[in-house]
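Predict structure. Input: Integrator complex subunit 13, 680 residues.
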Amino acid sequence: MKIFSESHKTVFVVDHCPYMAESCRQHVEFDMLVKNRTQGIIPLAPISKSLWTCSVESSMEYCRIMHDIFPFKKLVSVNFLVMSLSDLYILFILHGLVAAVETLCKITEYQHEARTLLMENAERVGNRGRIICITNAKSDSHVRMLEDCVQETIHEHNKLAANSDHLMQIQKCELVLIHTYAVGEDSLVSDRPKKELSPVLTSEVHSVRAGRHLATKLNILVQQHFDLASTTITNIPMKEEQHANTSANYDVELLHHKDAHVDFLKSGDTHIGGSSREGSFKETITLKWCTPRTNNIELHYCTGAYRISPVDVNSRPSSCLTNFLLNGRSVLLEQPRKSGSKVISHMLSSHGGEIFLHVLSSSRSILEDPPSISEGCGGRVTDYRITDFGEFMRENRLTPFLDPRYKIDGSLEIPLERAKDQLEKHTRYWPMIISQTTIFNMQAVVPLASVIVKESLTEEDVLNCQKTIYNLVDMERKNDPLPISTVGTRGKGPKRDEQYRIMWNELETLVRAHINNSEKHQRVLECLMACRSKPPEEEERKKRGRKREDKEDKSEKAVKDYEQEKSWQDSERLKGILERGKEELAEAEIIKDSPDSPEPPNKKPLVEMDETPPVEKSKGPVSLLSLWSNRINTANSRKHQEFAGRLNSVNNRAELYQHLKEENGSVLFITTENGKASRQ
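Output follows.
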C-alpha cells in the first residue's frame, strides 16, 4: 500500500467568534524612538494584538516552516486558511470543521499520480490528514462536542467517498484542538494528550495563552508533526550596526529534519542543551561556527543534506546568516568539545537558492579500503574472535530452499524470514572480543552454548546442558583456573572466586537470552540457578577463606615492612660503629708514630682489623651485623683473661664448691650467659 502519513494534508480552522477580537493583553512597544524624542511630545502608548491576529500569525509561521523544509508532498489548505478567513466569522465553528473534513476527502495530485501508477489497485493508496483548530472553548464539554462533530462528519463523508471517483475515504485523521485565551485569565479547558476516539479519529487538546506563548506552542507542534529537530549555531561573528569596526558573537537556531542528528547522536559526543524561548524549554543541538570555506572541492565526504528554516526568521542574526549563505559561501560547523581535537560534523551551504544542512562523515569513509581485522580496527582492538566468527558464518549460510515448510498454525513458512529469525537467535548474546567473554573461551561450555540457541531442545540436549553446568560446579569445587583475560589490567587480576562469579553471570546472561524459546530452555535456566544457589555452610567456608587470605596478605605486608625498617636501622647502626672504629684506629696510629709519645704501661698487641673472626655455622645467611658483632666479641675476648669457670663449663654451667657435694649432697651452680653469672 502507498501510505501517505497524516502530515501529507494539514487543514487549519481558525475561529473568528466575537471573543477572538479581544486583546491578548500582551503589550508591544510601538514607540521605539526614546533617545531622540523632542521634548513636549507625548510618547505613543503600547499596543496589543487581538486573539485573532495572534492565531493567524502563529498559523502562518507553522506553514512557513513546513514549506521551507518540505516544499513538496506536504500540503496545507491555504485557500481555506487565507481566502476564507474573512468569511469564517459568519460560519459557526462547526461549519469550519465540516469544511475541513471535506478538504481531507479531496484527492491531491500526488495521490492521483499514485492511483494512476497502481491502476487496478488504486484502492491501496492511503488517505490520512490532520486538522488543527484554534478556538476559544467555553468548557471541556464544548471540546467534546467539537470532537463528536468531527467524528460524525468523517463517518458521513466516508460513505459519500465510497461511491465517488473524485473523493477518497479518510483512513486516519488527527484532530488538534488549541484553546487560546488572553494573558492573565484562567483557562476553562484542561490539557489532554493524544487519545483515540475511534479507529479513524484521534484527538488532543492544548490550552495555551495567546501572544508569544501561542507562537511557541505551534513551533513545537510543527516539530512533532514533521519529525523536525533543532540546531543552534553559536559564536557567529557579526559586525555591529552602530560600530562598524567592532563585531560580536551571536546564536541562530535552525529547524531541519531530525535525520541530520542521527549519526553523531550515536557517538554520544554531542552537546545537547536547552533552548528557552518565552518561558518554554526544548532540546537543541549546539554546533560551533568555523571559519568559512569558499572552495567546496576541499570539503569532507557528505552523507546527507537537509533543508533548514530559521526559527526567528525576522531577527538580524538570522537575516545576516541567510544572506551570507545565499551569496555562495559555505560554513563548517564543529561539535563543541572540552578536550581533544575538534570534530567537523556539519556544513551549511546553499544550492539553487535553498539552504541545506550537510552531514559530514567524521569516521572512515566507505570508499576507502577497510583495515585488516588482524591488525585491529583503528589500532585499538586486536583480539577479535575471528575463528569463532568464521564458524558462526558457516552455521548461518543461506542455501536454496526447495521443499516448502509449514508452521504449526498451517501457514507457509517463508525461508528468508526463517533465516532472519535464526540469525537473530544466534546473535542475542555473542561477544565480538576475546577479552570480553569467559564462557566462549572454555571448552567445557561449548556443548551448552551450541545447543541453547536452538528454537527447541530435545531431552538429550537438556541433559547435555545440565552435565555442562555440573562440570562447571565441579571445576569450581576443585578451584580450577579459568581463562580470564588480563589484558589492560595490573597485578594478578581478579581472585579465583571472583573469576567464577564473572563466569556464572555471563552463563546466566546467555541462557536468559533464550528462555522464551521453549519450556526446556526454562529447565536449563532452573538447573543453572539451582547450582548457583550455594548452601550456607559453603558460603561461610568461602567467606572464612577470603578473610584468612586477607589476614595472610596483611601479615606478609607487615613482616615485609618490619624487615625493611629493621634492616635500615641495622645498617645505620653498623655504619656508625664502622665510623667510630676507623676514628679510633686513626688516633692509635698517630700516637704510635709520634716520637714524644710515652710508651704505654701495658703493652698488648692491638687487634688487627683485617683479622677474620670465627663465624658460627648457621643454616641461613649471616647478616653483616652478625659478622661485625662476632668480630668485636673476638677482639674483646683477647683483652682479658677468660674466667676459669666459663672455660671448664658444660653448656654454660660451671659447678662450684665441689667439696660440698660430699658433705650435704647439695650442689651450687653458676650459670653464665653473655658474660653474666647467675646462681642456681
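The longest strand covers residues 228-239.
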